[in-house]
């Protein structure tokens, strides 16, 4: 364990060299001696030494502008049963500003990009052949229907701008990760010099990592703080899901309970024969069975009725447009009105102010 080591010296190796990305790096060299040099303890020493390795992402105790990126450790000479062990910790200069504490440093890992996501393709900007919409009407307002006017069951890929950044916080509440993850902004939010309207930003990823920077002895704590990582996604149409208000169940009559929708070809009873309507009649299951019993009773009384089926022909209905009260929207079926849509808010609205997003992220990034 760490208590079995004594820090002998601390030196800097390759201080100020450039890595392949052009970042300035410093290698800090720690030399420890083992107190109990029995064979058993010496065999365990390299494993125990890991408790003294600076944690990845933590700041260097001498200069918080440098962040630990990698480290290696081992014994100096196993053949001579050496009691000396070393740690080489590579720190990368992440900030140019001077800072007394890590949580006063500017944001880092700032990136801008796009992300592609498969979503249900229910609403579109226009149909082929309709031409471009005016800029004021450039929103999802055309239901995705086939040429017969029925909904098309399909998915599409949408591409959204995405912003990622990290920052240090002294008093970050870990519970905020659960509280703010997968929420949308409930007020106009500034990011990188742009104002994004309410409901257009999604906190797609939020994580926090507790960090501790120790003095060179690897035991005495110097700073305790949190690295906060955020990824925010932008959708100009907001994050409500617009779906066609369709189904195969509906409310009939005075009932408050939905029933299956059937569509059947209603008979026209004649003296000796029966004809059927050319357009299916929409009804609930009970209505169909009632009509079917009436029809079969009529058929049993008319031996001379030829060409009639044994029972009423029907089709099981799919994707029937509905009114807000759950009844069948006959105007949409007739084509006199567009298919109705209904919007669901998939994510919670949340005030992001208490997250303490740094000022540098809110302002234009330079």
Description of the structure:
Helices cover 11% and strands 42% of the residues. The chain is mostly beta strands. A four-stranded antiparallel β-sheet has the order 1-2-4-3, covered by helices on one side. The chain is elongated. The two termini are 46 Å apart. The model has no long low-confidence stretch (mean pLDDT 86).
In short:
The chain contains five helices and 24 strands.
In percent, how helical is the residue content?
10-25%
Gyration radius (Cα, Å) is 35 Å
Instruction: Give the tally of structural domains.
Output: 3
Beta-strand segment tally = 24
Spell out the blueprint of helices and strands.
Elements lengths: L4 E14 L5 E11 L4 H11 L16 E10 L8 E10 L14 E13 L2 E2 L17 E2 L11 E15 L6 H5 L2 E3 L3 E3 L2 E3 L4 E14 L6 E14 L5 E5 L1 E2 L1 E2 L8 E6 L2 E3 L4 E3 L4 E4 H17 L12 E3 L3 E2 L8 H5 L6 E5 L2 E3 L8 H4 L4
Parallel strand pairs: 9-24
Antiparallel strand pairs: 1-2, 2-4, 3-4, 5-8, 6-7, 8-13, 10-11, 12-13, 14-23, 15-22, 16-17, 17-20, 17-21, 18-19
Key words describing this protein structure:
366 residues, mainly beta, four-stranded antiparallel beta sheet, elongated, 42% strand
């Amino acid at each position: 364990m760490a208590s079995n080591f004594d820090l002998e010296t601390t030196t800097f190796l390759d201080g100020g060299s450039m890595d392949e990305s052009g970042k300035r790096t410093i290698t800090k060299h720690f030399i420890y001696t083992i107190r109990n040099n029995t064979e058993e303890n010496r065999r365990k020493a390299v494993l125990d030494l890991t408790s003294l390795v600076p944690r990845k992402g933590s700041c260097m105790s001498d200069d918080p502008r440098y962040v630990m990126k990698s480290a290696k450790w081992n014994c100096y000479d196993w053949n001579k049963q050496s009691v000396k062990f070393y740690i080489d910790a590579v720190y990368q200069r992440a900030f140019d500003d001077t800072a007394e504490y890590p949580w006063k440093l500017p944001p880092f890992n700032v990136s801008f990009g796009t992300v592609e996501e498969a979503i249900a393709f229910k609403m579109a900007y226009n149909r082929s052949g309709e031409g471009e919409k005016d800029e004021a009407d450039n929103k999802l307002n055309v239901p995705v229907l086939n040429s017969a006017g029925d909904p098309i069951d399909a998915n599409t890929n949408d591409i959204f701008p995405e912003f990622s950044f990290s920052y240090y916080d002294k008093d970050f509440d870990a519970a905020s990760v659960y509280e703010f993850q997968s929420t949308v902004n409930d007020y106009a939010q500034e990011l990188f010099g742009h104002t994004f309207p309410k409901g257009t930003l999604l906190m797609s990823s939020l994580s926090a990592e507790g960090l501790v920077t120790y003095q060179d002895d690897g035991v005495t704590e110097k700073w305790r703080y949190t690295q906060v990582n955020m990824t925010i996604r932008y959708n100009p149409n907001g994050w409500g899901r617009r779906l066609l208000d369709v189904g195969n169940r509906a409310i009939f009559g005075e009932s408050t309970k939905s029933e299956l929708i059937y569509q059947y070809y209603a008979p026209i009873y004649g003296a000796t024969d029966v004809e059927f309507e050319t357009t299916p009649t929409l009804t609930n299951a009970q209505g169909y069975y009632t009509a079917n019993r009436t029809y079969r009773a009529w058929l049993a009384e008319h031996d001379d009725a030829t060409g009639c089926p044994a029972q009423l022909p029907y089709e099981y209905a799919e994707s029937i447009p509905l009114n807000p009260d759950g009844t069948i929207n006959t105007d949409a079926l007739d084509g006199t009105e567009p298919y109705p849509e209904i919007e669901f808010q998939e994510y919670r609205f949340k005030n992001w102010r208490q997250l303490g997003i740094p000022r540098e992220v809110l302002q234009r990034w330079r």
